[in-house]
Amino acid sequence: MQRAEIEQAFYKAGLGARVPEIDRLMRASIRLLTKPVNENTLQVGSSKLGGHPDLPVGVKWPEHDGQALSFLAQIRLTDLLTMQGSEALPLWGTLWFFYDASQQTFGDQAQDCGGWSILFNNDLSARLQRVPAPTELPAASLFQACALTFHDELTLPLEPALELPDSHWSDEEQEAYEHALELLRNPADLALPHHRLLGNPDTIQDDMRLQCQLAPQNITDPDDPRVAALEAGALDWQLLLQIDTDAGAHMHWANNGMLYYWLKQADLRAWRFDQSWLILQAE
């Protein structure tokens, strides 16, 4: 998706007056395209989805409540240096993403904390080794190794009014905006998994940022008196990584769902990846 395409879709949808706001709505994203491979053909430390993690010697496979988590992805950050938006990430090092092997962590309550893990290492002297999966992990929690290629992609939010609180959007404009999003969807691309780093998420249900803000406090009632004080900070949350259902990787999240790893912008700038929150959404 390029800016010129977005502008054309706005005009076609009758949103010409909103074209000047496009730059405030767009976010650069790094799309991850997968290709199933024999993991033995991948160099230790390579970016990949699924397979087995290449961890620094001495680093243990993450667990939660005594149960090993599933390994999902490994991102070598130097692979992203030419990508738009990569300046939000460390220049070098590796990120590893893990998730609840039983897939019962949805990110809607404080007790879910620990049902996922992000590891980060930027020690250039660290020696990486491919780590076999713990024997207790069921076969369904082990995923096909996939090589990754990275592509720049501009993204738009689902609800522009949330991004531009100073710019009132009418119901009619929201409807026109949704039509613009439809015009931008490529049928061939829709058939592919949508894994991405950064940018706006491919939201399946509702905007997730307020949930990221409230769930760690175990607030599930929108009428809870604590909501008002926390609501203002919801927009501080930034998508770090989304992992889609991907048949080639043997990854299936609920009913054609996605996993979303979120981080507050200040934590992202400080590389505090242990402060993330995860949400699973499905159809």
Fold and architecture overview:
This protein has one domain: Hypothetical protein YwqG fold (Roll), CATH 2.30.320.10. It has helices at 3-12, 22-25, 160-163, 171-184, 187-190, 209-214, 227-231, 265-269; strands at residues 27-36, 48-49, 54-56, 63-64, 67-68, 70-76, 94-99, 116-121, 128-130, 146-155, 195-197, 237-244, 258-264, 277-281. The two termini are 24 Å apart. The mean pLDDT is 96. 18% of the residues lie in helices and 26% in strands. A hairpin with a 2-residue loop joins strand 4 and strand 5 (67-68). The chain has eight helices and 14 strands. The strands form three sheets. A ten-stranded antiparallel sheet has the order 8-7-6-2-10-1-11-12-13-14. By secondary structure, it is of the alpha+beta class.
Query: Which bin fits the share of residues in helices?
Result: 10-25%
Over the alpha carbons, how many angstroms does the gyration radius reach? 19 Å
Task: Report the CATH C-level class.
Answer: Mainly Beta
Order of helices and strands: HHEEEEEEEEEEHHHEHHEEHE
- From the 3D coordinates, which CATH architecture would you assign? Roll
The total beta strand count reads 14
**What's the N-to-C terminus distance?**
24 Å
| Broad shape | globular
Largest sheet: 10 strands, antiparallel
Order of strands side by side in the largest beta sheet? Answer: 8-7-6-2-10-1-11-12-13-14
Count of discrete alpha- or pi-helical segments spanning 4 or more residues: 8
CATH-assigned fold name: Hypothetical protein YwqG fold
Unreliable runs: none
Given the helix and strand composition, which structural class is it?
Answer: alpha+beta
How many domains in all? 1
Q: Give the strand content.
A: 25-35%
